[in-house]
Structures are given as structure tokens and as C-alpha cells.
Specification:
The complex is a heterodimer of chains A (about 180) and B (about 230). By secondary structure, chain A is mainly alpha-helical. Chain A is built from nine helices and no strands. In chain A, helix 2 (about 20-40) packs across helix 4 (about 75-90) and helix 8 (about 150-160) crosses helix 9. The relative contact order of chain A is 0.10. By secondary structure, chain B is of the alpha+beta class. In chain B, the strands form two sheets. Chain B has a five-stranded antiparallel beta sheet, with helices on one face. In chain B, strands 5-4-7-8 form a four-stranded antiparallel beta sheet, with no helix packed on it. The longest helix of chain B has 17 residues, at about 95-115. Mean pLDDT of chain B is about 80; it is low at about 1-10 and about 110-120. The chains are: A mainly alpha (about 180), B alpha+beta (about 230). Chain A: It holds the Pfam family Sigma70_r2. Chain A: This is RNA polymerase sigma factor.
């Protein structure tokens, strides 16, 4: 696991130097995972393919900023794919603005931050913790992350007012954080 | 609302979670965006949530994308193709296997003359027409700015010559010259056509000796083919 991580980090570092062969190796290593994520969000193959391609274009163009974001390499790659897929899903909606990805478009200036404090072991607890939330709240977090639901979408889905939805979801997130770091 | 807001709305960490989920809209989003750029602790909170949420993708099975997606991505990022000319020739769908050998033969001088350089764009076509025995293969090599032609079959009618034309949308046919006799020949491609190379249809007409007298084709079309990128 660690050597995987190191290898992907090394590949991203080489890609940041413009190494096309490393980019192709990285593609071969992670494209199936990223395509799986895009397919989960978008469902149709053609749009998922487009989103995956767009993700790799972002990876190529922003790999030099990877060091500045403190994310583990797979998190960075998957987050780019997830956000790109959701942006595409939402693009047809009125007034949509793309999701921000730290270390992609936006990065606070300064020297390299320390790695995210969230250990892999903590992240692994997420699924169990989501399941331990009140059913609706877990479903709302999943809906926001995997289906790109907005607060308005969620409020409609759970048939509650928008503000209630936001309070709900924030409570869910709070419980989630407590559960995961326990 | 029956919910008592026990969570302070300004709770930064929950705001960070909302950013990571992409839930913020309008002014809230703009404010969070500005903070991401300036406030490293906040950016770090967002990163922490991304690190947590990504576990929701653990169960998503990898699906190998189709090979064409890889190819499309690479040609989108690196427009100068990295495959060799010979590979491109073999990938070309436009001609039969038998004709490929001929095209490869045409391409050989291109390979020999600049062995250290990557070839530029190459276009090719098989030219033919109904009611005509003439068949020609053409390879346009943009790095040389010329067209290599090889006659597969057919000849100019008695007392006539063959003239090559480039046809582009909304323009009169542009003469590329009278083809000399012989099976293999090269003609220069005018530099001003290079930008539109991908749209060119090549045509051959039969003309009086010396070529079409006023620069426009007068004879019948003996062979015709739209170029395709190799």
C-alpha cells in the first residue's frame, strides 16, 4: 500500500516536470479507478469518458501544484475525477459554478503544508460511520458526494425546507467527524 | 423549525465539509473560495474532509476505459503524435491491405529523409471514380509540404493529360498541376493550403495537353478522394 502510494506520488512528480511517459504510466495505473468513479456519478459511458479525459487534462496541467495541497495522491486524483464528473452532471443546471478543488485551481500560498492529518485508518471508518448516522443523514451525505445533490435537491428529496436540510446535513457531518476520529 | 441550531453557523470545519461536497452556492461559495486562497488552515480542513469523503469511492469498482479514450486524451494533450509514420499507415482505415503496401512504399522517402525528426501531420486518400479505371493513392506529408502519388491502375485518355486539383469548401478548385507520366510522382502542396489540409478533397480530371487552359477544370473527373489524417 505504501509503495503504491510512493509510486503514484513519484509519477505525479515526474508528470509535473512534463514527463509524458510518466503521464501514460500514471494513466494506465489509475484510469480504471477514475473511470469507475466518473461512471458512478454520470452513468452514461460517453459522458463518463469525457469527464475522465477532462480529469486527466487537469491532472496534467496541475500536477506541479500537487505538492501544495496536502492530499494523499489517490485522494487528489479521485477528488479531481469526482469533482469533474459532478461539474459535468450539474453543468446543465442554471447558474452552476464548478466545485473548487484545493491544490487544483486554488491553493493557499506558502511552503508545502504537512500531509493531511486524516490517517488512512480514519478514512476507512467513513463507511461504517455513515451507516451509523440516522439513515436519512447518511443518505444525504452520500447523495451530495456521489450524486452531486445540492441543498435544494436534498431538501426536495427528503421533503423538508432548505434551512432544515442544511441543519440536518451539518449535524450529520458533525456526528460523522466525531465517529471517524473516535 | 423545531431543530435548535446547536451548531454555530460559522463553524469553519463544517463549512470546509460543505466546500468539499460542493454544496455552497452564491455568496457563501464566493467567500469560501476567497478563503481557500488565503487561509491555509481552512484549505487544510477542506483537504481533511476530502480525505475522509474519498472513502465513499472505495466500493466503486475500477472499470478499464476503452482504448480510444486513452488515444483521444493523448492526442488532445500532445497534438504532435508520438506514433511513427509507419504505425499511422497501418492504422489507416482508408485503404485495403494490398494498397497499404503501396502507400508504405510512397511513404518510405519521408522516413528516410528525416530519420531523426518526428513526422508532421500526414493525410492520405485513395482516389477513384465510377466509370473510370483510374485509381491513385495520395499521401500528403505536411512536414515536406508535398503530395506523393502512386497510380494503381488506369491512364489518361488518348491525347489527354491528367491534372490534379485540390477542392476545398466554398472555393474554386485549385490546380496542383499536370501529372507527369509514370507511376509515382510528387507534387508540391501550396503553402497556403496547409492550414486547411484536413478538408482537402483531391481530384483528377482529364484535360487537353498542357492542362486546363484557364485554370479551371474542363474535363471529367477521373478520380476523387477526400483526405483522411493518418
Amino acid at each position: 500500500m505504501n509503495s503504491d502510494r510512493e509510486e503514484i506520488e513519484r509519477l505525479i512528480a515526474q508528470v509535473a516536470l512534463g514527463d509524458r511517459a510518466a503521464f501514460e504510466t500514471l494513466y494506465d495505473r489509475v484510469s480504471a479507478k477514475l473511470f469507475g468513479v466518473c461512471l458512478r456519478v454520470l452513468e452514461t459511458r460517453a459522458t463518463a469518458e469525457d469527464a475522465m479525459q477532462d480529469s486527466f487534462v487537469k491532472i496534467w496541467n496541475n500536477s506541479d501544484r500537487y505538492q501544495a495541497n496536502g492530499l494523499s495522491p489517490m485522494t487528489w486524483l479521485i477528488t479531481i475525477a469526482r469533482n469533474t464528473a459532478i461539474d459535468r452532471l450539474r453543468a446543465t443546471r442554471k447558474g452552476h459554478q464548478d466545485i473548487d478543488t484545493p491544490g487544483l485551481e486554488l491553493a493557499a500560498p506558502g511552503p508545502n503544508p504537512e500531509q493531511s492529518a486524516v490517517a488512512a485508518s480514519e478514512a476507512k471508518r467513513l463507511t461504517g460511520c455513515l451507516d451509523s448516522l440516522e439513515a436519512d443523514r447518511g443518505a444525504a451525505v452520500r447523495g451530495a458526494y456521489l450524486d452531486g445533490d445540492s441543498y435544494a435537491d436534498l431538501a426536495q428529496r427528503f421533503n423538508v425546507p432548505l434551512n432544515t436540510m442544511r441543519t440536518w446535513l451539518r449535524r450529520g457531518l458533525l456526528s460523522l467527524r466525531e465517529c471517524m476520529s473516535a | 423549525m423545531s431543530d435548535t441550531p446547536i451548531i454555530p453557523p460559522e463553524d469553519d470545519d463544517l463549512l470546509a465539509a460543505e466546500v468539499a461536497l460542493g454544496l455552497l452556492e452564491g455568496e457563501d461559495r464566493a467567500a469560501a473560495r476567497a478563503r481557500l486562497l488565503q487561509d491555509r488552515a481552512f484549505a487544510r480542513n477542506v483537504a481533511d474532509w476530502q480525505e475522509r469523503f474519498v472513502a465513499m469511492t472505495d466500493d466503486i469498482a475500477p472499470v478499464p476505459p476503452p482504448a480510444k479514450a486513452r488515444k483521444a486524451l493523448l492526442s488532445r494533450l500532445f497534438p504532435t503524435r508520438r506514433v511513427s509514420l509507419m504505425q499511422r499507415l497501418w492504422l489507416w482505415q482508408g485503404v485495403s491491405v494490398a494498397a497499404l503496401a503501396t502507400v508504405a512504399f510512397l511513404a518510405l522517402p519521408m522516413l528516410r529523409e528525416a530519420p531523426t525528426e518526428l513526422p508532421g501531420d500526414v493525410y492520405a486518400t485513395r482516389m477513384a471514380a465510377e466509370d473510370s479505371a483510374l485509381e491513385m493513392l495520395a499521401v500528403m506529408d505536411m512536414s515536406r509540404g508535398d503530395i506523393a502519388l502512386r497510380r494503381v491502375s488506369g491512364n489518361a485518355p488518348e491525347g489527354r493529360v491528367l491534372e490534379l486539383w485540390a477542392i476545398l469548401p466554398d472555393r474554386a478548385p485549385i490546380s496542383l498541376g499536370v501529372l507527369p507520366e509514370g507511376d509515382v510522382t510528387r507534387v508540391a502542396l501550396p503553402a497556403d493550403l496547409a492550414a486547411e489540409a484536413a478538408q482537402i478533397t483531391l481530384a483528377i480530371t482529364d484535360e487537353p495537353p498542357g492542362g486546363a487552359p484557364d485554370g479551371s477544370p474542363t474535363g471529367g473527373i477521373m478520380a476523387l478522394g477526400a483526405v483522411a489524417e493518418l
